[in-house]
Design goal:
By secondary structure, the chain is an alpha+beta fold. The chain has 15 helices and 16 strands. It is elongated.
Length: 430
């Protein structure tokens, strides 16, 4: 308690410097947290993509011709069967279009809008944990029978029917009638593989694209997501999938084609770093850029805080001399100065924690949620700071600031404690 009173008194004697030190620490922690949270969106397990650490993504197919030339596209159902049929290691494999499609939708109330549609098989609902508010996902039978059923997001259901519980209602998608069988909580567009505003069963015709070549049967507009039983099984699952490439290349060899090895399938971090279908994702560069950014964010306030700490201690030489003259030991003076800096760091950290949530909630659309708009319809968001906050990141940022303040105060406090009391009182600097 005595230390706390002394710290409060010391800060009161230099209110400007003390306040600036606390604010500087708070801002440094807040900036680091926001930057790390932005990264978390793309790589961390965030609902409805809570199983990211168990997933491998096959975005498409790149092939080269022996006669020269190459081609890239997504997969056909035939290619998916060759590469993913009857795998042993995955818990489940799902077929879907990785890029959503903007479609015309008309509700029972006559409202016509353009919404983002994704088609998939029934297994997608086992991989991505969408929160069903009403109804249920479509089944294997719905997919096999090509049933005209659809799952909507809550906001889209409300716009099309005037009620979030749209189960049993009929809507038109591309002028075809569909029955609503389920309504899920809205998904952020930043959830690249699970986002949509409506989902329908994948149709056999969805998997064919013609480029006028012998291998057209393997090119389509489908992608694949496979989920391992546990995160530890991902390497084995990847190896089993890659082993299919040899037999696939043997099959297309007769046409004079071969598959380009770009590292498919990818884990979540590789998907995030993907820049082109014919290139291998450079995860190391992505990480380096991110770490450099964090270092810069910390370095600038670090220099300012260090200078501020040393300036504060230089101005307190007279005070230290008086305390030494009245019998204060060198160790007690050093301890009080270091505890004061710990106090400043903790207070700054707590303020930084509050600022992190305040800034995140106030500027969600700026930092995390770029609004997608198709045909004048803006997507309603469901992502928030609490989904992305990491106590471990906060702890490391706080520890960094404390160590920085400790180092900044260590040498000046040692010097202050060993100063001659008479010289300190008389303001003599050495």
């Amino acid at each position: 308690m005595k230390f706390i009173k002394q710290i409060i008194y010391d800060l009161r004697t230099q209110p400007v410097i003390g306040t600036v030190s606390i604010i500087g620490t708070a801002l440094a922690i807040m900036l680091v947290m926001v930057v790390m949270m932005i990264r978390q969106i793309n790589v961390a397990a965030v609902a409805p993509e809570s199983n990211r650490d168990r997933l491998l993504y096959e975005y498409g197919l790149s092939m080269e011709c022996d006669e020269g030339g190459s081609g890239s596209s997504k997969l056909s159902l035939k290619a998916i069967d060759k590469l993913y049929g009857d795998l042993k290691t995955p818990e489940v494999v799902s077929i879907l279009n990785s890029d959503f499609e903007a479609v015309d939708v008309i509700g029972e109330n006559g409202v016509a809008i353009v919404a983002d549609m994704r088609f998939s098989d029934e297994n997608m609902w086992k991989i991505f944990d969408h929160k069903f508010l009403y109804g249920a996902p479509y089944s294997e039978a719905d997919v096999k029978n090509n049933n005209k059923v659809v799952v909507l997001t809550e906001s889209l259901a409300r716009k099309l029917t005037g009620n979030p519980d749209a189960v049993g209602k009929n809507i038109l998608i591309k002028q075809y009638p569909y029955k609503v069988i389920g309504v899920v909580r809205d998904v952020s567009p930043l959830m690249g593989w699970s986002y949509a505003q409506l989902w329908t069963p994948v149709h056999p015709d969805n998997g064919s694209i013609s480029f006028g070549s012998e291998v057209d049967q393997y090119w389509g507009n489908l992608s694949v997501v496979s989920m391992a039983k546990t995160p530890e099984d991902v390497p084995a699952m990847r190896q089993e999938i890659l082993s299919r490439n040899a037999s696939f290349n043997n099959e297309i060899k007769e046409f004079g084609w071969r598959r380009v090895d770009t590292g498919f399938p990818y884990v979540q971090e590789e998907v995030h770093a993907l820049r082109g279908t014919n290139t291998t994702p450079d995860v190391d560069s992505e990480r380096m850029i991110h770490y450099i950014l964090v270092a810069i964010i910390l370095l600038v306030p670090a220099i300012n805080l260090s200078s501020m700490t040393q300036s504060r201690l230089r101005q307190r030489r007279h005070e230290v001399g008086v305390r030494r003259a009245f019998g204060a030991t060198k160790s007690s003076i050093m301890r009080s100065i270091l505890v004061e800096n710990l106090f400043v760091t903790v207070i700054g950290g707590l303020i930084g924690l509050v600022l992190t949530f305040v800034v995140s909630y106030m500027f969600t659309s700026l930092f995390y949620e770029p609004v997608f708009s198709w045909g004048g319809y803006s997507v309603e968001m469901s992502l928030n700071a609490s989904m992305l906050f990491s106590w471990s990141i906060f702890g490391w940022a706080l520890l960094f600031c404390f160590v920085l303040n400790l180092l900044s105060a260590g040498i000046p406090s040692w010097r202050a404690a060993h100063v001659n009391p008479v010289e300190a009182i008389n303001g003599i600097n050495k």
